[in-house]
Amino acid sequence: MMSAGHVQWRGCLSIHGNFEYIPGYWEWAEDILSHYSGILDGALLSDVVLASLCFYDCSDAFLKAFCDSWCRSTNTLIIPPGELSISLWELLELGGLPVTGHLFDEVVPIAECLSPTLDSDARLPRSCRFLLLSSHRLASHFLDSIVYEENVYCAAFLSCWLCVFVLPVEPLFFIRASVFKMASILAKGSRVSLAPPVLAYIYRSLSQISLSECTGEP
């Protein structure tokens, strides 16, 4: 919903200033929070997943002033009292994103990493295999039944959550197969260090906005 000078959203995605509702996301997230609370608590994700369902008011004038004050060469805000920046502390204390845990590694794993002959510490969760298989079948329009195991349902949701709300890189609205590995680890209740890549994404996005303001690019 949009109002004069403000934007409110709930389970929505911002695209070039417009807000698009994601059909079914609200219901899916509520189901995950209800049935997988223990897993989400272990991964320190309960609060941040819940945050994706909230309404947020955002002043266009404030956002413009914020971006105008951003220095892309130092990743700081140039304001009268001095320079300020966004740190991992803000993402941990204010955003709730974990700083410690497995290193966030967005990559499509090779088949050997899914082999049951590997040691348990080196082997990826079986849910990752099912997500990759489902993605392949959807891409090839081969929609035969797949017997899901472990926490595939939770891992599938977290894949969507990562692509839409945590690291929404283009093309938007698409779930990237490269997040299946991390989503499967999170669906086991393991912590993943999400704050560093999110901070880097924020820096990159603000720098792109600052550059487009200087060059006049859209």
Automatic annotation (TrEMBL):
Residues 50-212 form the Aminotransferase-like plant mobile domain. It comes from the Eukaryota. It holds the Pfam family PMD. InterPro entries: AminoTfrase-like_pln_mobile (IPR019557). PANTHER family: 1,2-DIHYDROXY-3-KETO-5-METHYLTHIOPENTENE DIOXYGENASE 4, AMINOTRANSFERASE-LIKE PLANT MOBILE DOMAIN-CONTAINING PROTEIN. This is Aminotransferase-like plant mobile domain-containing protein.
